[in-house]
Amino acid sequence: MNIKKIAVIAGDGIGPEVVAEGIKVMEKAAVLDGRISFEFTHFPWGCEYYLEHGKMMADDGIEQLKAFDAIYLGAVGYPGVPDHISLWDLLLIIRKEFDQYVNLRPIQLLDGATCPITHGTKENIDMLFIRENSEGEYAGAGDWLFKGKQEEVVLQTGVFSRKGTERIMRHAFEVAKKEKKSLTSISKGNALNYSMVFWDEVFEEISQEYPEVETYSYLVDAAAMHMIMDPGRFEVVVTSNLFGDILTDVGAALAGGMGLAAGANINPERTYPSMFEPVHGSAPDIAGKQIANPLAAIWSVSQMFDFFGFEDIGENILQAIEKVMTEGEVLTPDLGGNAKTNEVGERVVQLLK
């Protein structure tokens, strides 16, 4: 039996509600398969913890998390705690300390999901975004000078190291090569004359090592247009932290909404635990009402199984999600239904093979 230790940070708002359903699916899928089991340890970190203790996580939180095989995160953010604190003092610390430099965001239109564009189909909305997750525009480098004075200046510095840029591109090329798909780089080299020119040059260099992978390169504004007008041209996509953050939300809209948006923060070397999460946010306005859509949280569970090498279980979970969608009988209000969060989770469990 392959036993995996999972750190659970349910977090804020609807986080605990959707994570509970994800855990339910994890446990059922493991029992049905018989090759893997889980040990869960729950941590109370998040905005409520901050309001009580003045910090988003325990002082030795990173040391505690090092002992786990993976982290399952619900959501971060709540009124009363500034967004830059809730993000930088928990989520981004984990990503950076554990070198989770690969962010995987599947943009896949499932049967039963509503697409806002008339020409959107399951065949042409099927892409994987590989977002650089450790530096770039979210490196946290900069300064705030002459604060409060007329001469006030703020500097936000994008950090693009050769190591960081090469490793995310090699990872993307390896994925494209394995899946026999094209790879598209998205940048803004015409305007960002240092960072994105460097990005484009490194992409060209690395592409020489993978002659079998068909490549494309788009400016981010053109890419945003093409995602709407011609989404089928994108298969595997590699892009920077900021551009990936924005464009994957465009992709989420194409694929049925944020309630279906899953994400994985991966340390490919497995030196540290990786982290899996729905990316819909904490939605405090609907917290506690049991109307939050748990399918994104369950989809991130599918990603976790993939990461552990049980791709067949991950695919089984994804098929169960799709079956819930096509049945159309047990869906939360955001998908046009009237089911409760726990009822959707129960239905996914029932449909697991």
From TrEMBL:
Residues 5-348 form the Isopropylmalate dehydrogenase-like domain. Its EC number is 1.1.1.83. The keyword RNA-binding does not apply. Its cofactor is Mg(2+); Mn(2+). Keywords: Manganese, Metal-binding, NAD, Oxidoreductase. Transmembrane segments: none annotated. GO terms for molecular function: D-malate dehydrogenase (decarboxylating) (NAD+) activity; magnesium ion binding; NAD binding. It catalyses: (R)-malate + NAD(+) = pyruvate + CO2 + NADH. It comes from the Bacteria. Pfam families: Iso_dh. The keyword Nuclease does not apply. Belongs to the isocitrate and isopropylmalate dehydrogenases family. This is D-malate dehydrogenase (decarboxylating). It comes from Pseudogracilibacillus auburnensis.
